[in-house]
């Protein structure tokens, strides 16, 4: 399988754009096989490999597995990152926690690709699960070998292989994979084996359904390219069937919206039948329709639409996103920041490459968030306060050495920041 793996990855140009690659490793047979393959061919693929592991603390051997993987990485000169899950575990919570951790590491450690060990059997299971849950045809495309995964890409080089193709190697058996409490386990251990009695090639058939769905979806995207879905004249000028397809494609721009079929039907009814509308959908999203256009927006403190930068040049009261900001006008219970000079202040959203001087060390803002376990809701609304090109602080979170020096010396001005009521 080794040579075939190299051929698939090189022919698919999976790693052509990537140098630093992060492998999600559980310690199971799939990820340990992928680790061996990537490590063996790292020079052929031109990659530097790092390992990321999540310890779910679900069984007594969890800490032993973490220690083994960390030791393996150390012996082979690879970076190793680990985070422990806390709270009540569910499949959905575990997945969200896992992928947020991977994103954090990619961002702070400059990895441009995340690699997972999903194989063809996983693909068949995923498509079957979507069918059982009643997913729309457009959502049956399944997993792709390479897809966007901000801040980089997600690569699944084993999707071309079955689990039976994987070689025997040292790995840890996860007993929770046998538990019928999890839907995927029931699919893997019960439902698909039963269906194989009717059709021994059921897994391949499911994979082909996913491939056809993907082709169908891409064809729709190509055919509707250049069509402005939010223009009501354009949208309403289509047949009902085309309207449904256009609306589905538009909703894919908001992956965390998750409208049910009944909610989708109601939204389509609003678009077609009602005039001016401003209504709440779910998960922080609002739908707005006037006479000419329609749009979906996420509104509130955690909005994906960042507030515009503001420049503060004089004393006064200012507004930025969820914050009330004043210069030299004290606010009760406000967070304050000493300013070392009277130069203009830039109030803006934080960016992945931002660095702040803390205890004599320039530290990435994103790394500070992770090290101090700043909740994601606070990260999303965090503002950087910058003067003369240097970061003085992060709203309600951190104060740089530059501001502390001003506080201990001569304070030229003070900024007060408070969450709006």
Structure description:
The protein is α+β, with helices and mostly antiparallel strands. The chain folds into three domains: 2-204, 3-Layer(aba) Sandwich (Rossmann fold); 242-298, no CATH class; 310-419, no CATH class. Helix content is 38%, strand content 22%. It contains 14 helices and 20 strands. It has helices at residues 2-11, 29-40, 42-45, 62-75, 91-109, 120-132, 183-198, 202-223, 232-236, 240-251, 261-273, 365-371, 376-381, 401-408; strands at 20-24, 48-55, 79-84, 113-115, 146-149, 152-155, 277-280, 285-289, 294-298, 310-312, 316-320, 323-327, 335-339, 345-349, 355-358, 361-364, 383-387, 390-394, 398-399, 413-419. The strands form five sheets. The protein has a six-stranded mixed beta sheet, with helices on both faces. The chain has a five-stranded antiparallel beta sheet with strand order 10-14-17-18-19. Strands 11-12-20-13 form a four-stranded antiparallel beta sheet.
Which helices and strands occur, and which strands form pairs?
Elements: H1 2-11, E1 20-24, H2 29-40, H3 42-45, E2 48-55, H4 62-75, E3 79-84, H5 91-109, E4 113-115, H6 120-132, E5 146-149, E6 152-155, H7 183-198, H8 202-223, H9 232-236, H10 240-251, H11 261-273, E7 277-280, E8 285-289, E9 294-298, E10 310-312, E11 316-320, E12 323-327, E13 335-339, E14 345-349, E15 355-358, E16 361-364, H12 365-371, H13 376-381, E17 383-387, E18 390-394, E19 398-399, H14 401-408, E20 413-419
Parallel strand pairs: 1-2, 1-4, 2-3, 4-6
Antiparallel strand pairs: 5-6, 7-8, 8-9, 10-14, 11-12, 12-20, 13-20, 14-17, 15-16, 17-18, 18-19
